[in-house]
Amino acid sequence: MNIAADIKMQFLFQLRAQGVTDSRVLTAMEHVDRGAFLTGLFQKRAYDDVPLAIACGQTISQPSIVGLMTQALDVQPRDKVLEIGTGSGYQAAILARLARRVYTVDRYKRLTRDAETTFNALNINNITAITADGSLGLPDQSPFDRILVTAAAEDPPSTLLAQLRIGGIMVLPVGQSDTVQRLIRVTKTQTGLDYEELRTVRFVPLVEGVGQD
Ligand code: SAH
Questions:
Q1: Most ligand 1 atoms within 8 A of CB, residue of 136, 207, 208, 210 to mutate
Q2: 86 Cα: distance to centroid of ligand 1 (angstroms)
Q3: Pocket of ligand 1 contains residue 84 by CB under 6 Å
Q4: In the chain, fewer beta carbons within 10 Å around the N or the C end?
């Protein structure tokens, strides 16, 4: 067995041990090289289950958290998905293997531009990366079947909930940035919203407005 295959096996083992059991999610994560979304020395740690630094003072999430969030989102092949917080683009690339189309928004132009370059290099062509304030969502493209927020808000943003179709699911961390946040799954039904608490997490904050870089 070569080293790459060995590392990948350990990566998948670690994901399963952390509760990522959905085979579609595991297959998607097996096929998206996290190293392609990292630069310099961090590439060496691509398959460690840790968050790592990316440009603009942001972070690429821990793989097991990416897996658990993707699993909770229960993405279907025909789905149109909105992700808030492109960051490196890693999470969007995984969603793109499971969904029909992914729209991903970040407030830093540098991050959406770099992510687009990576998507092109990996031949992924069902992701649209947009620089904007994601707390406003993308009204022109709504409603979405699934919405994933990868930055923490104090409450689920009502603007985003309004852009979720009935029967749709939104997964997001809620809570203040320097405290423990809760990962929440919201399902929109005919009669209202169902909330489910999944686990504690730690994400960078959802910040209003567009960034300088
Ligand atoms: N999903 C990313 C990690 C996200 S880190 C990955 O796979 O690498 C959180 C990201 O949310 C950061 O890049 C930050 O710039 C972005 N962010 C924070 N507030 C935002 C807002 N209001 N609109 C859009 N993006 C935002």
A1: 207
A2: 5
A3: yes
A4: N
Distance 12 CA to ligand 1 centre (A): 25
Does the active-site annotation cover 61?
A: yes
From first to last of its 213 residues, the chain has per-residue pLDDT tens of 456 889 999 999 999 999 999 999 999 999 999 999 999 999 999 999 999 999 999 999 999 999 999 999 999 999 999 999 999 999 999 999 999 999 999 999 999 999 999 999 999 999 999 999 999 999 999 999 999 999 999 999 999 999 999 999 999 999 987 788 999 999 999 999 999 999 999 999 999 898 888
Which residues, 6 or more positions from 26, have their beta carbon under 8 angstroms from its beta carbon?
Answer: 12, 15, 16, 20, 67
How far apart are the CA of 69 and the centre of ligand 1, in A?
15
Q: Which CATH class is domain 3-201?
A: alpha beta
- Residue among 203, 194, 196 at smallest CA distance from 59: 203
